Amino acid sequence: MPRPTRIEGLAIVSADGMLADADGRMPKSLLVKADQQFFQDTLDQAAVLVQGRHSHEGSPRAAPRRRLILSRRIAAIAEDTTYPNALLWNPKGATLQEAWERLGAPDGMLAVIGGTEVYDLFLTIGYDRFHLSRAPHVRLPGRAAGISRGWS
């Protein structure tokens, strides 16, 4: 039975510790060339990505990647129309293993790419590694600490 062999989180935050702007989106000011190269190279090695509704890697290499998109709008697991190799997954209705198997993913690394509630979920599951970058000259005003739009 295929399964995740390790779980790695990847994030970049602003100087004030934010992942996203007031609209819940990652601004271009957080895109740092060296970090993006590391990010994309790591995603190339992943068997599956996990993300919230606003998280994405924005790469031409994105389409073939298998992904689970967290959603409260479904009971357990459902097809996603945004990405050809994606499923919507509600962890309250299905286990990670069930979602992994339904996705048809091989054994391999699971890359967690956000948002905040997605990262929080995997704190309870457990990370093997977490790669955190910081953009020290970027501030994201208008974002109240502790507020997360999370996954739908």
Describe it for me?
The chain has 152 residues and is of the alpha/beta class. It has one domain (4-16, 31-135): Dihydrofolate Reductase, subunit A, CATH 3.40.430.10. It is 20% helix and 26% strand. A 7-stranded mixed sheet has the order 4-5-3-2-6-1-7, sandwiched between helices. Strand 4 (77-79) and strand 5 form a beta hairpin. It is globular and about 45 Å long.
Provide key terms for this protein.
152 residues, seven-stranded mixed β-sheet, 3 helices, globular
Short description:
Helices cover 20% and strands 26% of the residues. By secondary structure, it is of the alpha/beta class.
Estimate nothing, just give the exact number of structural domains. 1
Strand order of the largest sheet: 4-5-3-2-6-1-7
CATH class, named Alpha Beta
Uncertain residue segments: none
Helix-strand blueprint:
Blueprint: E1 4-14, H1 33-45, E2 46-51, E3 67-70, E4 77-79, E5 86-89, H2 96-103, E6 108-112, H3 116-125, E7 129-135
Parallel strand pairs: 1-6, 1-7, 2-3, 2-6, 3-5
Antiparallel strand pairs: 4-5
